[in-house]
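Co-fold these.
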Amino acid sequence: MIENLTPPATPDALKQARDDFPILSRTVNGKPLIYLDNAASTQKPQSVIDAANRYYSHENANIHRGVHLLSTEATAAYEAARKKLAQYLNASDESEIIFTRGATESVNLIAHSFLEPLIKPGEEILISHMEHHANIVPWQLLAERTGGRLRVAPIDDNGNLELDACLSMMGPKTKLVAIVHVSNAIGTVNPIEAIIAKARENGIATLIDCAQSIQHMRLDVQSMGCDFAVFSGHKMFGPTGIGGLYGKRSLLKRMCPYQGGGDMISHVTFDGTTFKEPPSRFEAGTPHIAGAIGLGVALDYIESIGIETIRDYESQLIEYAVNRLKSCQGVEIVGNPDHRSGAISFIMENAHPHDIGTILDTDGIAIRTGHHCCEPLMNRFGISATARASIALYNNSDDIDALVDSLAKVRALFG
Amino acid sequence: MCADLQSLYRETLIEQSRNPKNNYVLEGANRRSELKNPLCGDVVTIYLSVSGDRIDEASFEAQCCSICRASASMLTTRISGSNRLSAISLAEDLIAFLNESDSVIFENDDSLQALSGVKAFASRIRCATLPWEAFQKAISD
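Predicted complex below.
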C-alpha cells in the first residue's frame, strides 16, 4: 500500500502560530530548534509569559483574604481562570474545577479524598496496561493502605485497549475505573465513551486522565459523563506547577479534604474544624495564583485558534509523521493504534533510543527517549525504552522531515 | 557530524558497543549487582568472581544504550584479573573523571579516554558511569 506522504496544509488560523512562541526562534547546538517533545511539556506563547510578568509586576497579592485592591484583583483573576477552565471543559459549574499542581496531584487527591474513604478490602480499582505511572502508583499505594486490589485491563499488540476484556472486568467489586484518554507513550486514543457508559450502568466511578488529550481535542465533561477528569497546565501551553481536576459537584461535596491549612476552612477551634465547600475545601494554602492565571491565558490562546482547527490539523500531521517514519529504513513504530493523537514511539534496529535522542539533539531536534513513565507498557512490548516524537499546534511537516533526515544520520552511524 | 558527537561516538566506543566483551552471565560468580537508571530504564548487571584480593573474572548483562554497553565492556575488561582495591580505586577515579570538568586523570588512558566524550553531554554521563556504579555496589556488598 502506498502511504499518503502529502504534507498537510497549515490552516490560516495556525499560519502565524510559531511566531507566538518565542522559544521556537532560538537555536540548539547551532541549529534552529525543532521541538517534538510536546507530550512531556509544551512551549508557552508570549501571552502566557506576559501574564506571569503582568501578575507579578502589577497584580501580585494573596487571594481570598485581603480587603485591599490588589487582593481583590488577584482573587478575581484567579477565579476567572477557574471559570475559563469550567467553560472549556463544559463543566456545569465552576466549583467543579479544582486547581492542583498538575495531573499527578489530581489523581492523588482523588485517591485520598474520594476513593480511600469508600473502598473496602477486596474491592477493586480498574486501570489499563498503558497507564502513566501517575495513574498506577497512587492506586497501588491506596491498595496497600486499604486492602483494595488493582486490576489491569489488557492491551493488544497494536497498543489498542482490549475493550471487551476491559468492560468484562467491571463488576460488583469495582469501585473506580481510572483510564488514560490518550496514551502519552504511544498515542492511543481510548474509547472512553464505552468505558464510561458501562461504568455508569454499574454504578462505578470514572476518572479520565486527560493530560494528553485536553490540548488536542474538545473535551466536554458533561457529554463524556465521567466523574473526574485530570490535566496538567504545562502540557497545554500553560505554566508548570499548575493543573487541575474536574469533579462532579455531587461527589466533590461528599469528599473529605486533601490537605489541611488556610483557605479551606469555614471555622477552626482547637476542638475541631469545619471545612469550606468545594472547590476551596481542596485548595489549602496559597495556591499557584500566577500559574492559574497563566493557564487561563493559555486557554484563551487555544480558543483563539479553535480546538477543532487544532485537532483537524494535528490529526493530519500525525498521520503524515507516521507515514514518513514507516518509510524510514531501520525504524520500527511501537504501537499501531486504531486512533492516534499527538505521539509516535519508535525504535531502531541497532541504535538505542538514548543514542537516537543525542544525535537528534545535535541537529536541534528535541524528542523524548526512555520509558516515558510507562514501564509496564514498555514491558508489554518487550522493550525498555522508545524514542518518542510528539506534536503540538505549532509543528509542521518541515519538523517531521527534519526528524526523518536526522534519523538517517543515526542509521549511518549505528547501521 | 558535529565535533562533540564525533568525540562521543568514537570508533572504539561504537566498536565495543557492537561487539562488547564479557557480555554474559558469569556462572559461579560470587558477587552480583544489578543497577537501574530510573530516569531512563537502562539496567546493567555486573557479575564478579572474587577470590581474596583478586577479581578473577568480571562480566555483565545489560539492557542499555551504546555508551553504557561500551562502558560495561571496558570496565569488565579492565578489572578482570586485577587487584580488588585497585579496581575500586579505578572506579572511583573514573566516575570522578566523568563527572568533574577539571579532572585530567584519564588523559593518557587510551581505552577509558574513549568515554570522555560524554562530558560534553550532561544527560549522558550517567550512561557511562552506571556499570561502574554497579561494580562498586557488587564489590562492597
